[in-house]
Structures are given as C-alpha cells and as structure tokens.
Specification:
The two termini are about 40 Å apart. A hairpin with a 2-residue loop joins strand 2 and strand 3. The longest helix has 15 residues. The protein has a single domain, classed as Arc Repressor Mutant, subunit A (Orthogonal Bundle), CATH 1.10.10.10. The chain is mainly alpha-helical. Helix 4 crosses helix 5. A 3-stranded antiparallel β-sheet has the order 1-3-2. About 60% of the residues lie in helices and about 10% in strands. It is elongated.
C-alpha cells in the first residue's frame, strides 16, 4: 500500500508570515544546541536529580541514596548535567555539593510539569 502525503497547493500564500517565521527561527547551531539540551531532559534519573537539586544542594552520596543508584552512576549523570550547564558544584574540603546552575533550570522543570498536568 502506498503512503499518502498531504500536498500543499498554496505555496507562499502567507508570504509575510513565512518571512516572520524565518526571522524568528534560531540559527542551525542554536537549534542543534537546543536539541542537545532537550535530550538531557529525556532521562528519568536526570529529571529526578534536577528535582532534588531544586529543593536543596546535595552531595553525590545523598543523591545516590535518594535515587537508589550507585555513586558511580549518579556521578555519570551529574557529569552530563554539568556539561549541559544545568548543575553547578562547589567543594567543601573533600566533599562536593551540587545545585541547579540557575533559576532557568527550575523554570524549565516547572513548565514541563505544568504542561503534562494540563
């Protein structure tokens, strides 16, 4: 069976709107970076870690206990989150404490949660 596709007979009927869309779409590099950022949010464990860090800063051992995962597995997830600039860390002696990088991360989480609850 052949697949059917809708064919648009009205190419550029809304020329001004199309131009406005083109002006507002980010560059290819920015789209690529944004796509990578959203991929980071595609993992349940990373989302759980971000939610935990939205409440308070935590060390790897506490996050591991919370998620019932090994410290090594959590360290790997934190590395991904740091690379995406979603978390930051500070050292206190030998201990390392993680927190959200900024308020934007909390906003992204809240907006995502609001969206799925609609």
């Amino acid at each position: 069976m052949e697949e059917q596709f809708d064919i648009c007979d009205y190419i550029n009927m809304k020329e001004e709107e199309v131009k406005e869309v083109i002006r507002n779409i980010p560059s290819e590099d920015k789209l690529y970076n944004l796509s990578d950022l959203f991929k980071v949010f595609g993992d349940k464990t990373r989302i759980k870690v971000l939610y935990a860090l939205s409440v308070t800063e935590m060390c790897v051992c506490d996050i591991a206990r919370l998620t019932e995962m090994t410290q090594s597995a959590i360290s790997h997830q934190l590395k991904t989150l740091k690379a995406s600039k979603l978390v930051k860390y500070r050292k206190e002696g030998k201990a390392t404490f993680y927190s959200l990088a900024d308020d934007h991360v909390k906003t992204i989480l809240e907006q995502g949660k609001n969206h799925i609850e609609e």
